[in-house]
Amino acid sequence: MFEQLSDRLATTFERLRGRARVTEADLDEALRDVRVALLEADVNLKVVRQLIATVRERALGERVLESITGAQQVVKIVHDAIVEMLGGTATPLARADRPPTVIVLAGLQGSGKTTTAAKLANLLRKQGRHPLLVAADVHRPAAIDQLTTLGKQLGVPVRAVRADRVAADVATITGAAAAEGSDTVIVDTAGRLHIDEGMMNEIADVVAAAKPHEVLLVVDAMAGQDAVDSASAFNARLALSGLVLAKADGDARGGASLSVRAVTGVPVKLIGTGERLDALEVFHPDRLAQRILGMGDILTLVERAQEHLDEKTAQEQARKLMDAQFTLDDFYAQLQQVKKMGPLGDLLKMVPGMGGIAKQLPEGPEAERELRKIEAIISSMTKGERADPSLINGPRRRRIAAGSGTTVSDVNQLLKQFADMKKLMKQFGTMAKSGRLPRLPGMPRV
Amino acid sequence: MSIDKALAKTRGGFLSRLFGRGDEKLTAEWLDGLEEALVRADVSVSLVDPLMAQLRDLFVTGELKTIPKALTAVRETLVAALAGDLRLAGEGKRPRVILVVGVNGSGKTTTAAKLAKRLKDAGERPLLAGADTFRAAAIEQLERWAERVEVPIVSGKPEGDPAAVVFDAVNAAAARGNTTVIADTAGRLHTKGQLMDELGKIVRVAGRAREGAPDEVLLVLDGTAGQNAIQQARQFTATAAVTGLVVTKLDGTAKGGAVFAIVQELGLPVKLLGVGEKADDLVPMDPLAFVNALLPDAA
Prior knowledge:
CATH topology of the largest domain in chain B: Rossmann fold
CATH architecture of the largest domain in chain A: 3-Layer(aba) Sandwich
Low-confidence stretches of chain B: 9-20
Distance between the termini of chain B: 28 Å
Strand order of the largest sheet of chain B: 3-2-4-1-5-6-7-8
Strand content of chain B: 5-15%
Number of helices of chain B: 12
Shape of chain A: flat
Shape of chain B: elongated
Number of strands of chain B: 8
Order of helices and strands of chain B: HHHHHEHEHEHEHEHEHEEH
Largest interface: A-B, 60 and 55 residues
Number of domains of chain A: 3
CATH class of the largest domain in chain A: Alpha Beta
Largest sheet of chain B: 8 strands, mixed
Distance between the termini of chain A: 35 Å
Helix content of chain A: 55-70%
CATH topology of the largest domain in chain A: Rossmann fold
Strand order of the largest sheet of chain A: 3-2-4-1-5-6-7-8
Order of helices and strands of chain A: HHHHEHEHEHEHEHEHEEHHHHHHHHHH
Largest sheet of chain A: 8 strands, mixed
Radius of gyration of chain B: 21 Å
Mean pLDDT of chain B: 91
Low-confidence stretches of chain A: 352-357, 435-446
Structural class of chain A: alpha/beta
CATH class of the largest domain in chain B: Alpha Beta
Mean pLDDT of chain A: 82
CATH superfamily of the largest domain in chain A: P-loop containing nucleotide triphosphate hydrolases
Oligomer: heterodimer
């Protein structure tokens, strides 16, 4: 469904290249592909039209049509236009001159406010701050319990407001926060519809009472065309200072957030990338542009690798690989490390040019299942077998298959792949030692 | 809130326009407006583009001349797509088992509670099962709802096995004479293998508690969701054999048009609509009202 824009454009331009003269009409045909790709990524229709007009003008100016690399050039122009709309570089959260810094979270029902509040508290605490969570969602049943539980998990204090005194209590708690040792107050509010007058009045009162330094709107990454309308209404009423893109760990392209930024001018500041309470990151506009276009996100991949992979282990494994001492145990350990970085399909999509391969892989859960099969097989081997797979004869294969809930042919396949890999690595090792293997340019050191 | 009232919120004078200007001439601009309305309602371009191409052809050849005729054509096409048997399956099964599944924040817990209320009002004896043992306080949330709609509940322990909760609830229902078990499950992104496997297990275990269960696996889709809803439906169907859709949050300005691609590709019927925050705000799908809500405001 989500064909890669670059693939699609390449096909279009391939057709165009055969001709003696390429006309504006031909360019427009290519831009129709851009339009469809952007709409499929949930970019707002108005924003799409604007983008297309900009891209068209620039493409003609750069004489893209005469170029052999026209498709890539158009993709680059689209990419740059999107980055511009997203606001270029990352925007940091405001910080009060005199503590506490007050942050109010707002949004539609189910957009992810409560989880974001807890994640933000966690993020700030890691930076040495002392956050206080304020549970001001008195409407959703058990919302206060939810934030209280999350606060407990994090060891961050939580204060709840009373149902009939939301704004007043927020003011009191915020006023007393500094004296009680908190330098940042994060207020979680109830989800509400932007057209619900009563509820919009309530949050306007909360904002007036809290005098916040940040009013962040939490936007669901899976949101569609309507996101622009709802965000505009929130902005008109609350003067938003930033957006949080929640649930961006799925496969949604997040085009709605681009649109909200483009239409309201409010920058995206944070992005939620997983269920765990540490999965909230500073937002980088250029990376989202690549995601919307399906161009991969190598920077996030490298960062995740740095965060999750243990460098010493990695070096040790690299050495073993080259020396062909790599065992199934090492292979298993490596799998565990890669798994920590997130779903395999997601990782592949971040690698430029690998999006196509990610597409051919079994979708989402399937790929994870394959991985887990491999894990199960290796776990069902004895220590000796893992160190020396040549021990694994017929009866052992049957035992391993039974133990791991797989078939003998699954086990055979894994052993063959492992043997092939070792052989290949041995060749690399020999080449590297004899100095025939050039260091790959631009690759991060392992 | 009634479905018409909820869905009419941004419709403006749709009906008056339709009946008031019966012979208004179709124009290229009006067709552009129609296209815009459909796209802005999150109807997939893969459906809008061919539909608009057909309409424009008919317009150019002079076969389609007036706005009401064009609207009727579009309306009939879209309504037909949503038609079918929209009743909940498993009537007469004891107990009937309904699983409520979906991504985070789509409105599962609220939908489970409203559905319980709906069945209770229809004379059934529903039992809620709080099987979202993952999200902090999700069980408390359903328990409060259960109290509010006066329906009994069997709930799990935080971080307990959700499949076991469903199993216990089905057995409890059989013992106590409850007619339908409605199980609320944890929100999960369709891309998370492990969580999807857990859901597969819940489905299998339900079948062990009562032969043939679950009777309905309702995928709850956020009405404000965009094209990703299609991917969600694909993955949930592959893992949990979804039998029907519930589109929520239609009391805002979003139209839920993404469901058309799902209906077309997966043949899943939209059975229920969430149109408000009150216990009564879950209504059966009304294809005509749903379609009318997303047809254009501006002629």
